[in-house]
Specification:
- It is built from 21 helices and 27 strands.
- It has about 650 residues and is α/β, with parallel strands linked by helices.
- Helix 1 runs parallel beside helix 2.
- The strands form seven sheets. Strands 3-4-5-8-9-10-11-12 form an eight-stranded parallel beta barrel, surrounded by five helices.
- A hairpin with a 4-residue loop joins strand 22 and strand 23.
């Protein structure tokens, strides 16, 4: 299966067993107070090595304390880090995986009070604060820091290092005209702007020898005004090959770019492949591509068509560490899919929190779960509700060896998430639902459709545990004139499910995630839409990367957005409100869609006092929140009983 993807490849003096590389990800956990790696990071990486990846990288290896991108990333700038790294290498290398470290300096994109860069120009987005321009002697010292860090990696037993020359970090800042306005030997011409990168390469080679492989992650396009472009990558590629670089890992984007480095579900799969494809025409060393390459058949086709030599996976192996092995065995349907929501991974990390994954709560907990044993006594568990929380719980209870029965009051599983998947650009939400459906079938979990939880059902099944995953429903706000208006009054659930239709001019009350998704759904059908958000910010519960693409879609749909809204009253054909202190009156509207709060559905909890079974609430039935809590609570309850 996927013979192109699972063929070996030569990279410098190394041979990878397949064409899959796990990208370096700044996961922001698994280090001690001195930023030396701990067992948490080791077991996170071991789990992915077990899963069959050919090449993998430790992310965010900082070469200097002044370039630490995030507070909890591994350091490579002190010999004290080597013993812990050696232990990591010994554990990972048991699984026939090429193992390297991505070396980086954050420059102006470091989360530090004092930031340095080629020029005193702050980052265009995300990271705030003043920046100091580096002196020439400091630049040379930093090049030497990369060399010293590479030596530590070699001494720890790593197979290679990768230089992070992309995504707006220090090397990229030197390369790009918009961040490097120096007039000395490190600025101005293409040759001068690339000098720092070649200084680093030569210093590494001097300290570890030319046989120790060096790769580089480099942008094919910064996607920002006056940034590094594809023509620059094509020009520098042969020069890097001549300098002894083992491979080119071609990506795109910087903080503040129009195409985001970590794209969300709204982005086309393989969004950066064309960059690697062009670079590959100009070099003979392996070229690695990246960017929403989610499905194995797509990855295999990229290799088959010669667009790249290898495919990098990041979030896909967060979601399922065993992606490579399952793909190789032809068990594609068993791969737990990334849904491109960006919430647990990049959004959490940029908030300086530990990285995680919405669909895989085990991320970061591998060291706690490595010795997990199934319970000695099998229970009978009845789960009410076939949404994502209910299905996730059913799967995990069955995996733990419990007899599991799922009842769903409707004719199909999926809950409100299946409605969200009907919105434009959010179809991949169905992927995780289909994964759970397949798992429920393969685990022989009995599913009762058109069956609401009742005392008769509980008495018939006699469960030890009842898990209420009954979800939530839209809450109707009390606002003057809302229930007296002549406009049609419906909920977002009514509209997206198709139970109700709306006319051409629509007011959406609610500027959270569901409100904006509903507005996009309606605008995509040609409706004129106004969104009234009674909060200060739009869709705070969404990852910023995901929200960015949605907001761009709303602009294309000409959706009018108002925040800090105070509604004075609804009229027969519109609404009077204040937004940021300014009063507005909207008229000639025909429909109002309620898309604000949801209320938990937990009426069945009252049945607990009539039975011996112990009840537990999970997901929206516990409290309406986003998908991460639904799945994590479901898996946790199954492991804790």
């Amino acid at each position: 299966m996927f013979s192109n993807l699972f063929s070996p490849i030569q990279i410098g003096n190394m041979t990878s067993k397949n064409r899959l590389l796990m990208s370096a990800m700044s996961i922001n956990f698994g280090v001690d107070d001195n930023c030396c790696v701990t067992d948490q990071l080791v077991q996170y990486l071991v789990e992915r090595a077990k899963g069959g990846i050919g090449v993998m990288l430790v992310g965010g290896g900082s070469v200097h304390p002044g370039g630490q991108e995030l507070p909890d990333l591994p350091q490579m700038y002190n010999d004290d880090c080597i013993p812990a790294l050696k232990k990591m290498v010994e554990e990972v290398k048991k699984y026939d995986t090429l193992f390297g470290v991505q070396l980086m300096h954050g420059g102006r994109q470091s989360y530090l009070p004092e930031k340095v860069a080629p020029s005193a120009i702050p980052a265009p987005a995300v990271v705030k604060g003043e920046v100091r321009a580096l002196e020439i002697d400091e630049i040379k010292d930093l090049a030497a820091c990369f060399g010293d860090s590479a030596r530590r990696c070699r001494d720890a037993g790593f197979d290679f290092v990768e230089l992070h020359g992309a995504h707006g970090y220090l090397i990229n800042q030197f390369l790009a005209p918009n961040s490097n306005i120096r007039t000395d030997e490190y600025g101005g011409s293409f040759e001068n702007r690339s000098r720092f990168l070649f200084d680093i390469i030569y210093d590494i080679q001097k300290k570890v020898g030319k046989d120790f492989p060096i790769g580089i992650r480099i942008n094919g396009n910064d996607y920002i005004e006056n940034g590094w472009e594809l023509k620059d990558t094509v020009k520098i590629g042969p020069l890097l090959e001549k300098a002894g670089i083992a491979y080119l890992h071609v990506s795109g984007g910087v903080y503040g770019s129009t195409e985001l480095t970590i794209p969300s579900m709204y982005t086309d799969h393989g969004c950066f492949v064309h960059l690697a494809e062009e670079v590959k025409k100009h070099v003979n060393i392996p070229v690695i591509t990246v960017g929403r390459i989610k499905y194995p058949d797509h990855a295999d086709k990229i290799i088959q068509e010669g667009k790249a030599d290898m495919v990098a996976l990041g979030r896909s192996v967060l979601a399922d560490p065993y992606y490579p092995e399952k793909a190789k065995m032809g068990q594609v349907e068993k791969i737990r899919p990334c849904i491109g929501c960006c919430l647990g991974c990049i959004h959490a990390v940029l908030a300086k929190e530990p990285g995680s994954c919405v669909v895989n709560p085990d991320v970061g907990r591998e060291y706690k779960l490595k010795d997990e044993q199934k319970p000695s006594k099998a229970l009978k568990v009845l789960i009410a509700g076939g949404g994502p929380a209910g299905m996730a719980a059913a799967r995990q209870f069955a995996l733990q060896g419990h007899k599991t029965i799922l009842c769903e009051k409707g004719k199909e599983t999926g809950g409100l998430l299946s409605l969200a998947a009907k919105a434009p650009g959010r179809e991949e939400l169905d992927d995780i639902l289909n994964f759970f459906r397949q798992e429920i079938e393969s685990l022989n979990i009995k599913t009762l459709f058109d069956t609401e939880l009742s005392l008769d059902l509980i008495n018939k099944i006699a469960p030890d545990k009842v898990i209420l995953a009954t979800g939530s429903m839209p809450d109707m706000p009390v606002i003057k004139g809302l229930f007296q208006t002549q406009m049609d009054l419906v909920t977002n659930v009514d509209v997206i499910s198709g139970q109700e239709t709306v006319k051409d001019k629509v007011i959406v009350l609610g500027g959270g995630m569901t409100g904006l998704i509903t507005a996009d759904f309606l605008a995509d059908k040609g409706k004129q839409v106004v969104v009234l958000n009674r909060k200060k910010s739009f869709a705070e519960e969404m990852a910023s990367n995901d929200r960015y693409y949605l907001r761009e879609r709303l602009k294309l749909g000409h959706v009018s957005l108002y925040k800090n809204v105070s509604v004075k009253q609804f009229t027969n054909d519109g609404v009077v409100f204040k937004s940021n202190g300014e009063e507005f009156t909207l008229t000639d509207f025909q429909s109002v869609v309620i898309s604000e709060k949801h209320s938990a559905i937990r009426d069945a909890k009252k049945l607990e006092r009539k039975t011996k079974a112990k009840f537990h609430l999970i997901g929206d039935a516990k409290s309406p929140r986003h998908l991460m809590y639904c799945i994590s609570e479901a898996e946790e309850i199954a492991r804790s009983v």
